[in-house]
Each structure stands twice: as C-alpha cells, then as structure tokens.
Amino acid sequence: MMFNDLKDLYVEQLRDLYDAEHQLTRALPKMANAASSTELRDAFNMHLEQTQGQIQRLERIFTDMGVTPQGETCEAMKGLIKEGDQVIQAQGNPHVKDAALIAAAQRVEHYEIAGYGSVRTYAKELGYGDAASLLQKTLDEEGRTDEKLTSIATGGLFSSGINEKADRR
Q1: Which CATH architecture has domain 6-165?
Q2: What pTM does this model have?
Q3: By the 8 A CB rule, do 52 and 105 touch?
C-alpha cells in the first residue's frame, strides 16, 4: 500500500468498501434466517437489496475513474461478520438473539457510515462531484438502515420493540 496523494487513499478506501459490501452480501441472508422477528428479517433482506445497489454505485465510480475495484480485503468487515456469525450460532431466547443480531448489524452500519463519510469527503476534495453524490446516496441509506435497526430494537414511537421483549433477569 502506498499513499502518494489523496487519490491513492481514495482508491484504497473505495476498494476496502467494495470488498466489505461483497462480504456483507454473503452475511445478510444468514442474519435474516437467524432472526425470529419478521420485521428484523425484512430489514435484513431490504438491506441486502440496498447493498447490491451500493456495489453497483461503487462499480460505476471505479469505471468512471478507469480503476479496477479489486485489490483490497476489508479485514474490519471480516471481524464484524465473524462476531455476527457467533450470534447467528447462539442458542436461547429468540428475542435476546434478535437484540444481539441488531447490535451486530449496527456495528456493521457504523463502520460503513464512517467509511462512506470519509470517501465522500475525499471525492469532494478531489473534484469528483458525481462520485461524491453517489457516495452521499449510499451514506444516507446506511444512516436510514441504522435508524431502522434502532427503531426495531426500541419499538419506535407507539409500540415496544425487541429490547422490551428480551428477558431482563
């Protein structure tokens, strides 16, 4: 890895996110299958569709720059998914497991929000306005997904969420 200028960093970070999103497309179906809550399962499936669109946006950015997307392995996402896999394999109260799945998913969302916020800023600095707009769209989706997971966990305004159903012994 060599960073001679901001563009080098930008490309490396985009490649990292590209790999992270691909890893996530393999993890989200497992998380959806492990969820006992229909609402949570639906949220994971909806985010899978969004993630596929986010990959297409990244591919467009790479194509516009004439750069290949491959080359980076996102070790952070590997670790986050490994932790999520431990939750998927866990036994016990299904409401508690759903709360754990939400926590694992929100760790992923926060990682993605940090990554997309950085590359969006780099794109702006480098004068890549179209890329910055595409990255902002993804950043907005990631934020909404995080909010949705919080709403499922806490129940939103008018109903109790998964956290209320989990045994508090």
Answers
A1: Up-down Bundle (1.20)
A2: 0.90
A3: no
